[in-house]
Amino acid sequence: MHTPEVLLDDSDAVYDYYQRHQQKRWQALASYAVLARRFRPRVRFADGAAQQLKALIRSGRPVIYAINHLSKHDPYTVAATAWRSPLRTKIGRVRVLAKDELFTDPDQRRKVDMMGAIPVFRGKDHGIRAVNAAGQRMMDVCAHRLAAGDHLAVFPEGTCNLVDHTKVQPVGSGIGHIAFRAAKLDAAPALVAIGMSYGPRTDPGTEPSAEEVASAMVYFRTPVTELPPRPGDIARLVKTELQAGVDEAVARY
Fold first, then answer.
1. CA proximity to 225, closest of 45, 85, 53
2. Pick from 194, 198, 109, 114: nearest CA to 154
3. Which has fewest Cβ within 10 Å: 83, 84, 93, 110?
4. Topology (CATH level 3) of domain 8-252
5. Which residues of 104-119 are buried (b: 16+ CB within 10 A; e: fewer)?
6. What SMART domains does this protein map onto (predicted)?
């Protein structure tokens, strides 16, 4: 299968590719295990959430994970969290939305492809009008991947939170449209909000230290199995659930 460059001008070919692309599961497992030894997040769950998540995974129902975005290190923290949680059994079948610039360097692209990334062309980088058609295709691809049995991890704030690490920033409607389109394919996903904290920040624009990243607090909310019917309402629910997860992660750090 031809591997296209991840370019906005060739977005149709890009999303045709990522609708079919499959990770090498054993390579992904090995890489996640290495990351889990380097990054050691303290993973906590709401009452009953771990058991409910295990049941969802066993059932084959797709799940969307909404995670707050604090640092460039977040993908590594999330990978380590997956290894240290019931998500370990889904490694190799979890797709992750990632900004297109991460696919530019060939070595970096091999890594993000191995981790199941799907590129996103962001309006803040290319202009809202320029990315509209690509954004529609991206949401369709995500919905089809969910319908095929994959799970999906999303940083719904869209960019690192440099304002207040304790407060979830605005959540766009994209995550709601993905869930809505998956439901139209008879693959109604469940939602799990995951709050992260690297500890107190005196300057919200400063990256956390290596020690803070390695000891992140990660909190899983109880899965939401019945989502609202409209994309905007789903997005609002995501923000509410994610804020509750962040509150717990901050309090437990």
1. 53
2. 194
3. 110
4. Glycerol-3-phosphate (1)-acyltransferase (3.40.1130)
5. eeeeebeebbbbbbbb
6. PlsC
Cβ proximity of 197 and 250 under 8 Å? yes
CB neighbour burial string for 19-29, b if at least 16 within 10 angstroms, e if fewer:
eebebeeeebe
Virtual torsion, Cα 248, 171, 161, 105, nearest 10 deg:
120
Bridge partners for 224 per DSSP: 191
SS3 112: helix
Longest Cα–Cα distance in the chain:
48
- What are the structural domain ranges in the chain? 8-252
Strands across the sheet with 217-220, in order?
42-45, 217-220, 190-197, 63-67, 151-154, 94-99, 117-120
Please report which confidence band the pLDDT of residue 9 belongs to, taking 50, 70 and 90 as the band edges: very high
How far CA 112 is from CA of 23, 97, 99, 152, in Å, comes to: 10, 10, 10, 14
- Looking at the DSSP bridge assignments, the partners of residue 194 are 67, 220
Kind of pairing between the strands at 42-45 and 63-67: unpaired
- Alpha helix (H) residue ranges in the chain: 11-20, 25-38, 49-59, 74-83, 106-114, 123-126, 128-147, 174-184, 210-214, 231-252
Q: CA torsion sign, 90 to 94 to 140 to 168?
A: positive
DSSP conformational letter for 207:
P
pLDDT in tens, 49-71: 999 999 999 999 999 999 999 99
